[in-house]
Amino acid sequence: MVKCLVVRPAGDQVTVYTKVWLGRFIDTIQEGNDVLDINSGEVTPEAVLTAIINENPDFIYVAGHGLPELQTISTVRGNEDLFWIPCSYPDREHNDSNIGILKNKLVYLLSCFCGSKLVPAIGEIGGVSGGYEDEYIFIIDPDRYSPEEDVYANSFGDCANQFAISMIEGKDLQTCLDETYMKYSSEIEAWKRWLDENPDAPSYQRVRAALCARLLAHDRDALVGSQKSPLIAGVDRIGMLIVILLLIAAIIYGSLKREKYE
């Protein structure tokens, strides 16, 4: 059983959609796992950080907005940065870092730009983290669909959730990345087939389908992960390899020496 913390605000149009996506993720993994869902108006930095401290989740999935060095809950309300490393912007500045709270945790940030600096920083302190190093862009059709029924947007949500699902299943980081890449690629091919099979579809549908294929590829290629090399009894992999090679050399030397005197 994995203890999960899912953070899904709904303060603007983007997060109204991602809230639905993360809800579907919860439906997928709820059985057999322990899920704490902080959503909508309940989402504040204080609520999330308190839950991490008190509940000690194994896995944290956050949707929101981002910059290279920080994850924020909302762009509408101020002072809602959630995780950060030192950075300075016209509307915010952080001289410290608060990501120590994520040490030894699985973390997935569904937001723009966090993959470029924040995700690697989480990996360096001992977390296993995934996120997007460029803008995360998706298509919506609010004139014809609700967020729950929007076939275009949900194509992106299903792909985004794959990384989280793979993490929950205990896959290693590279496998999580590979399976998510394949999910994005499958959705891209599905939209391309739809275009081939529906040449006479209304123009708005064909435009949106083509954009889905293009932007799914953009998001797929922007996904990155970070994990510090595992330690074995305080020795990293290279150090352990050196130790093993020295032991092998010592064994061979000892064997040759015995043969010399026999």
CATH architecture of the largest domain: 3-Layer(aba) Sandwich
CATH C-level label of the largest domain: Alpha Beta
Rg is 23 Å
Count of alpha and pi helical runs: 7
Strand order, main sheet: write it out: 2-1-3-9-10-11
Strand coverage percent: 15-25%
Q: What name is given to the CATH topology of the largest domain?
A: Rossmann fold
Measured distance between first and last alpha carbons: 59 Å
**Which shape, going by the Cα principal axes?**
globular
Listing every helix as H and every strand as E from the N terminus to the C terminus, the arrangement reads: EHEHEEEEEEEHEHHHEH
How would you state the average pLDDT, rounded? 90
* Percent in helix: 40-55%
Number of domains: 2
Characterize the biggest β-sheet.
Answer: 6 strands, mixed
Uncertain spans? 231-237
How many strand units?
11
The class by helix and strand makeup works out as alpha/beta
